[in-house]
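Q: Got a minute? One more chain.
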Amino acid sequence: MIAELGVGKFIATGGCLVCGVVVIAAIGGGAKYAFTAADTAKLRTEICAYAAPPNAVRRVPAARFGLSTQQIANAREIVNVAAKLALPKRAAEIALGTAIQESGLTNLRTGNGSYGLFQQQPSQGWGTKQQVTDPSHAARSFYTHLIEIPGWEHMPLTQAAALVQRPREDLRDAYAKHEPRAKALVALLWKSGARRRAAVDTATSDDIRVSIQAAAGLGLPRDELVASIAADLGGQDSGERPDPDEIRKRADDIVTTVAGQLCKELKSKLGDPYDGDVPAVLPSGRGAIAVRAALRMIGVPYSWGGGGPGGPSFGTGRGAGTKGFDCSGLTEYAWSRAGVGIGSSTGPQWHSGKHVDRSQLQPGDLVFFAYNPHDPSTIHHVGLYIGEGKMVHAPHTGSHVQIAPMSRSDYAGAVRPS
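A: Always. Here it is, folded:
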């Protein structure tokens, strides 16, 4: 039940993540209220979801640039790596122009000893074959070499690119001809990758924190939370006629900022085994639907034999007393949300679609691990690839659904369900 009470909203909860009664204080006044959580890990998941606003990543019209969706995704990764390394936009422009010339932004595996977006050769110290065909690693390697060149920021694109890629060759304008397209891509992708952060004063932040915690406990959609905060902002007497669109944007920014702070605090308190960011870019399609479904289950307990198309369930054996997922139960649930049946155990799931090379992994692909990586009959674990070398999975009894790096020696292969 939600009833208006002047300074806030009185919320009597039942069957949700918040126990007891809480008050969401109105912005700018009112007492501060505490709450207790029945499932702190699940509450953290809901709060962290508020920190990632929907549609934060702008869709880039692939046809406008004469590129495929995958080529755009590769370009986005090159730009994102530059941003993560705190490099200027010029670095991304040089890198994109280079990759367009070298590979057409396609993760190539050629027969001449050169591989990946930048056609890097393992024999020349760029990394292993597997590493240079990983777009993130390849981009980092390019930038590492680029920033070692004195004055690279002020060089013509061809000169800077040639000094990184082919210092002994006269390439004239081979790279420079791609500069207009590279600049246009960076202008779009760089802006779309940045998250807005709103400045929030201490008093407002305290009230918003209470609002976010209570809303997450009740499972309120992010849009409803933003609308409520926007209504409070619009109701403040500032002597000016507020612009509804601007108020909505500010409320959205405030939720992103404060929820992000709460998310980090809860991760620290709960000891999250992986504290990295979830990849910001998820392409459209069934794989992305599966990934989003699995990510919503972060914090749900591991239960041997538990979970399926209907969501978490009580398992069998040592999982009989726990409602949650085992590894294959989580992946079955995720793909069922995308309308695809893959079976309830690793055996059927291994044969549920097309086998794909590790270098071609896409979000939503099933990734398998085996006692003998060359023998599928020894597969003992499955996760869901989410991008950037990470997966979401249900690891073992006593743990919960979580994100983890995929860098394991028992990796056996991957399947794209169909």
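A: The two ends are 43 Å apart (CA to CA).
Q: Perfect, thanks.
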